[in-house]
């Protein structure tokens, strides 16, 4: 898996990367539903703020690195994704790349910082890499804020926003033993598939793969 995290397949030099928190440019992301590419759907290029009951998802800014550096500093976050906590300098570099957008034609990067809707405190992030009309999604919640349903809340809101923006297929790549992330994916409507990606992560997908008719 990309050996620097910040959950994603978005690399600082504009390439895809494996894994999670801040991805290094390595393997290409799974690309599903390419059959839908030519449909007349307008997938938005602009990342918009999204509000939920307890959170506001704010489009990532380079200046968020200062706050997010602390959120991402806990080694526990990297248990299933690999990688390590980025330095402030590295995180700033990554955020500069992520806010500049993908250099790849037909690909759009969306990154949101999760903030407490009352206090504005940064507590995690969610991310989507849109290719054509499909999106690969990922989520991270800082350790002090975990197990409160916040990842579920953020993922549901992000996936609804993506669907409302014209996305017709979602994927997530989740370590087979990562039950918390699997629960988040299921909440957002994704279903586990039999497929493992080249890094051994399970591919989750919405809509669910169609079963052959017996
Ligand atoms: C995965 C992650 C985002 C979940 O965040 P969270 O805010 O704690 O998740 P939620 O509170 O919405 O809980 C989702 C489900 O996971 C369960 N869960 C949360 N943390 C768990 C843990 N450490 N062990 C077991 N289950 C856990 C919750 O109980 C809930 O399931 P339930 O509703 O059936 O009880 C968080 O653990 C994280 O950021 N991990 C590190 C980064 C990462 O691995 N991201 C995913 C990459 S695919």
Summarize the structure.
The chain is α+β, with helices and mostly antiparallel strands and 214 residues long.
Give an overview in words.
This protein has four helices and ten strands. The chain is of the alpha+beta class and 214 residues long. It has one domain: 3-Layer(aba) Sandwich (Aminopeptidase), CATH 3.40.630. The longest helix is centred in the C-terminal third of the chain and has 15 residues. The protein is globular and about 55 Å long. The site of coenzyme A has 23 residues, from β7, α3 and α4.
Q: What is the fold named in CATH at topology level? A: Aminopeptidase
What value does the Rg take, in angstroms? 16 Å
Domain tally? 1
Catalogue the ligands. Answer: coenzyme A
CATH class: Alpha Beta
**N-end to C-end Cα span:** 38 Å
What do we call the CATH homologous superfamily?
Gcn5-related N-acetyltransferase (GNAT)
Query: How many runs of DSSP E, i.e. beta strands?
Result: 10
Sheet with most strands: strand arrangement: 3-4-5-6-7-8-10-9
What's the mean pLDDT score?
A: 84
Overall body shape: globular
Largest sheet: 8 strands, mixed
**Tally of individual helices:** 4
Return the CATH architecture.
3-Layer(aba) Sandwich
Residue windows where pLDDT falls under 50 for at least 5 positions = 1-5, 13-41
Structural class: alpha+beta
């Amino acid at each position: 898996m990309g050996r620097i995290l910040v959950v994603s397949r978005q690399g600082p030099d504009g390439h895809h990367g494996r894994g999670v928190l801040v991805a290094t440019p390595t393997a290409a992301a799974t690309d599903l539903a390419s059959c839908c590419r030519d449909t007349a759907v307008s997938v938005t290029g602009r990342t918009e703020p999204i509000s939920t009951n307890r959170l506001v998802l704010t489009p990532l800014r380079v200046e968020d690195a200062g706050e997010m550096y602390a959120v991402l500093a806990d080694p526990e976050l990297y248990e299933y994704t690999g990688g390590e906590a980025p330095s402030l300098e590295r995180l700033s570099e990554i955020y500069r790349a992520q806010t500049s957008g993908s250099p790849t034609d037909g690909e759009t990067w969306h990154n949101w910082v999760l903030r407490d809707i009352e206090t504005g405190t940064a507590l995690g992030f969610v991310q989507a890499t849109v290719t054509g009309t499909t999106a690969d999604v990922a989520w991270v919640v800082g350790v002090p804020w975990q197990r409160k349903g916040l990842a579920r809340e953020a993922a549901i809101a992000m996936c609804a926003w993506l669907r409302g923006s014209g996305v017709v297929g979602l994927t997530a790549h989740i370590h087979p033993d990562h039950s918390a992330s699997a629960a988040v994916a299921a909440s957002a409507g994704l279903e586990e598939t039999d497929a493992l990606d080249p890094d051994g992560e399970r591919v989750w997908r919405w809509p669910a793969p169609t079963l052959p008719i017996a």
